[in-house]
Amino acid sequence: MTADCIFCKIAAEEISAKIVYESEDVLAFEDINPEAPVHLLIITKKHIKNIIELADYDSELFHNIGLAIKKLAADYQLDNGFRIVNNCGIAAGQSVNHLHFHLLAGRDLIWPPG
Ligand code: AMP
Questions:
Q1: What ranges do the domains of the chain cover?
Q2: Nearest-angstrom CA–CA distance, 99 and 91
Q3: How far apart are CA 15 and CA 88, in angstroms?
Q4: Known catalytic residue: 100?
Q5: What is the CATH number of domain 6-105?
Q6: What distance in angstroms lies between residue 7's CA and the mean position of ligand 1's atoms?
Q7: How far is CA 88 from CA 10, 36, 100, 102, 114, in A?
Q8: pLDDT tens digits along 29-72
Q9: 16: Cβ below 6 Å to ligand 1?
Q10: pTM for the complete prediction?
Q11: Out of 47, 63, 98, 100, which one is annotated catalytic?
């Protein structure tokens, strides 16, 4: 756990969030400021700053993120489609420096995103 990391605090249950999925190494919860009717955040439980910081030994972790997304898509019946977004770094607008993926659904999602 990294001090002052809001997502580490959610993973440690020090800050509450609406948890929608949990496994040994992955957590998902509702975004506090939703940009779509369904807006979930899928995070690693351990602190990784961003996708650049993934290590070779994190391959299973990355796989487990995929399984979480698959399960959430089924749970939320997102048969019509959804979008996964990862903002990496300042230019992409990453505001929380803890690896996370946005799952957006429930409205038309324009392409390309802004
Ligand atoms: P990003 O800008 O890609 O780093 O995304 C960070 C996301 O975290 C934003 O969509 C925020 O609304 C969301 N967020 C920040 N704090 C919380 C929180 N305490 N609980 C849930 N979502 C949060």
A1: 6-105
A2: 16
A3: 24
A4: yes
A5: 3.30.428.10
A6: 8
A7: 20, 20, 9, 12, 14
A8: 999 999 999 999 999 999 999 999 999 999 999 999 999 999 99
A9: no
A10: 0.98
A11: 100
Does residue 95's CB lie within 6 angstroms of at least one atom of ligand 1?
Answer: yes
Residues 6+ apart with CB under 8 A from 78: 38, 72, 105
3-state helix, strand, coil in the chain (%, to 5): 30, 20, 50
What ligand 1 atom has the least distance to the C-alpha of 35? 10
% of the chain with per-residue pLDDT over 90 = 96
Mutate to test the pocket of ligand 1, among 10, 15, 18, 96 (most ligand atoms within 8 A of CB): 96
